[in-house]
């Protein structure tokens, strides 16, 4: 006789996702309107169902074990699919307009699946998208010109999964890296050639400051206002650039410390929401981005 399958509890999976995205069990309890001990009991129940320890102590909070990290990826997908299914069944009549901004890095390769899930659930909602740089997108959200925006925070800023408050949530912490074409080899006798986005650009400034701090000579060989132009220049061998692995073309490679370049740290990817954005369509797209995008970004970090 076949064993009866174990069904993971959706409420427990949702609590796990919220806890790890917002900084621990106490934060999850606040958001869910429960006590911290109730959340802890839910997580113990989940460990019993899985048959593996999922959490470990990390100072005053908890971190994931390898098994916990694996389950979290599935939990995000299960919760997102559950919400999409309910929205499709209940809310197909939802209409209106959502104005949303994205960084260039996400617009082409990472967002179609997420936006597709939203469109399938709410085909009558009109999405107005704007692609831009982080500072511009954050300002437009603050002014109410955008309802939502995904934007990079400050390099070295909030840890992954932390709640930043004021309508801002950190979805992931992405490495900042040196990028070059596959055959690039630094010449120790010559300044490092740099291909960069034109100013103002946080990645440009950070890379130059790190080179100056390490006493590495450099020269700018190419600038562009667009990320696609920048990738083309790096692919042509015009120089090395500074970016995250998001949207990295397959023909380019990430340079390691063996190339003699300084480490660059990491940058948070944040989801911003305008204080005045209270429409149901905005609520749904915000939830889909918050629940689905971390799993998509994890695929980037693992690749």
From TrEMBL:
Residues 8-65 form the HTH lysR-type domain. Belongs to the LysR transcriptional regulatory family. InterPro entries: LTTR, LysR_HTH_N, LysR_subst-bd, WH-like_DNA-bd_sf, WH_DNA-bd_sf. SUPFAM superfamilies: Periplasmic binding protein-like II, Winged helix' DNA-binding domain. One of its GO terms (molecular function) is DNA binding. This is LysR family transcriptional regulator. Pfam families: HTH_1 (PF00126), LysR_substrate (PF03466). It comes from the Bacteria. Keywords: DNA-binding, Plasmid, Transcription, Transcription regulation.
